[in-house]
Amino acid sequence: MATLADVARRAGVSAATVSRIVNGSPKIVSEELRERVLRAVQELQYVPNAHAQLLARSHRTTVGVIVHDVSDPYFAEITRGLQRVASEQGRLVIICNSYRDPDRELEYVELLRAQQVEAIILAGSGYHDPGFTKSLNAKLSAYMATGGRVSVVGRHKLAGDAVMPANEEGAYLIGREIFAAGHRHVGVVAAPKQLTTTTDRLAGLRRAAREYRRTLPARRIEYAEFDRDGGAAATAALLDADPRLTAIIALNDSMAIGALSVLRERGLSVPEDVTVVGFDDMPIARDVTPALTTVRLPLVEIGARAIALALESQQPNPRVEEVEATVIHRESLAPPRTG
Amino acid sequence: MATLADVARRAGVSAATVSRIVNGSPKIVSEELRERVLRAVQELQYVPNAHAQLLARSHRTTVGVIVHDVSDPYFAEITRGLQRVASEQGRLVIICNSYRDPDRELEYVELLRAQQVEAIILAGSGYHDPGFTKSLNAKLSAYMATGGRVSVVGRHKLAGDAVMPANEEGAYLIGREIFAAGHRHVGVVAAPKQLTTTTDRLAGLRRAAREYRRTLPARRIEYAEFDRDGGAAATAALLDADPRLTAIIALNDSMAIGALSVLRERGLSVPEDVTVVGFDDMPIARDVTPALTTVRLPLVEIGARAIALALESQQPNPRVEEVEATVIHRESLAPPRTG
DNA sequence: GGTTACAAGGAAAGCCCTTTCCTCGCCTCT
DNA sequence: AGAGGCGAGGAAAGGGCTTTCCTTGTAACC
């Protein structure tokens, strides 16, 4: 690779001059030199070494984001919002997939710190695991102590700014709809227990149940992987345990889609035989049959807010922003047959 | 941020020793010093500056990938394969979304070069635009001239290794199924004309048509954005122009899903009234109603191959690997009503 | 006892830039 | 004519790390 020095030599000027021209510094440089340098840059196909620049300059310009998996639509949407703001602000973003592995998450925080990122965004559910939370917080605090910015989405107990999707409230709202429609035998297709997202949403559901003088017994909650196949498995288990189920609440849309597929296989029609609702309102939710009634979280905006928070001027006290959830009514919810 | 020198000072040793311990160099260091250093590292929460390391070391360890949009399932899958191989090989990957903007693509090549990446992977359709192709090639060649590795997926005319999805062949195969089933009025929901993916797939369709002594007149091809809404718009246009259509071939699954939604709105049932087929076999294809008959491209593997090619030992002559397409039979294809 | 050999740790050069501080030459003003 | 000012360009000091080459101290050998 051609270096600054190569260009300088070729143009017969000092490195300082080349640097000034290449970076458009305010310092005035004569037209003649400028031309010679630019020509040399062209001829050598010179591109400045970003790492050397970073070392020499003081300000950082990269932000890191840790998600469970970008190819999961939930995170894809968040990342999209994030990217938009990032490029508006001239920042490069490094995306890291933790695949819901706490250790990997820890490693990535370290890696991003090593990369000297300006901010770290953590998206995705937290874990009920005090040990892990503690060590993550320790790493995050160390990073923040040296001027790093941290912003998390949907995690209660972490250092840094936070944007909190209304998981509890959203679940409460959709739960109300279910109970208001008269469902008595309702099953919950849930994500793994140790995810805070699971417990938050479950809490909302329970609040709705209480309001309608119902309960959500443990046997009507089936925990599984937080994806389509997990949803299918949990639905099958629920149905096997109690064939009278008239409604299934899935804790996200992917799981709801898995539920739909099992129901179809078993010849049960939705919503006539069984109501199914999801959570998140991912784009595909309107295109499955029947279109999913679900809870919308403004994911793109959540991502955008998270990075904006991190990038905004250094405020000492962590801020938390709540974002609302709304129920999207489509076709997969109906009253039970025997009303 | 604590630096190497800080650690050295605190442990009362030289920077060289700290470096050797932190990086596990083969050089032997006494147990006592090692302990002192490790303790200092702990206390200072020291993390080596990755940029300084990169500058000081010779070997690179990051690869860059340019896709149209990671949140598009097509690229999400490719990226997943890519990421897998990358972490197996201890590489960090930087993902760049070009949003199908040629200029941005050019910029990103530059940016990745500046980041000193070991390899650049370009995924996603090429453009029929000689000027752009030429300048992209120039940049790529400059990069390769200095030891950079390039690998592209599905682009004919670019420097570097390539993995070529069988776009023409896949389209030919699905085309044959359509014509063999007896469809005579078939419309094509196509992506923008200037994408090579469009022309390749169209070519395959034409070959199939020829074999069945049919043609694909221009008025039966509607070009639109390469996504769900584009598919919906194109389908509507096609239907308006010729209500007798009995089959719609969409050039990818997203567009097919858009087609499905328009058909549903208009009260046409699939596949009884109209057959719909897609392309790519993205995960959701099996979950829409009716499940999509489509062409499968092994996307995860394509991503994995692309990065493997780039990372393998420096072979001078570019290699190209073809990957096969297969038709996945589901429920959205049937013979036309009037035999 | 003197030489050699080796092991353990340190000094310093180098990686590629940015930026501060200088220098030099010329113009302007009195 | 001399002082002062200013404008254009360069020298050099970092920035944080790796790694080569040295130095020093000790063990081993004849």
From TrEMBL, chains A, B:
InterPro entries: HTH_LacI, LacI/GalR-like_sensor, Lambda_DNA-bd_dom_sf, Peripla_BP_I. One of its GO terms (molecular function) is DNA binding. The keyword Iron does not apply. The keyword Repeat does not apply. Residues 2-57 form the HTH lacI-type domain. It comes from the Bacteria. This is LacI family DNA-binding transcriptional regulator. Keywords: DNA-binding, Transcription, Transcription regulation.
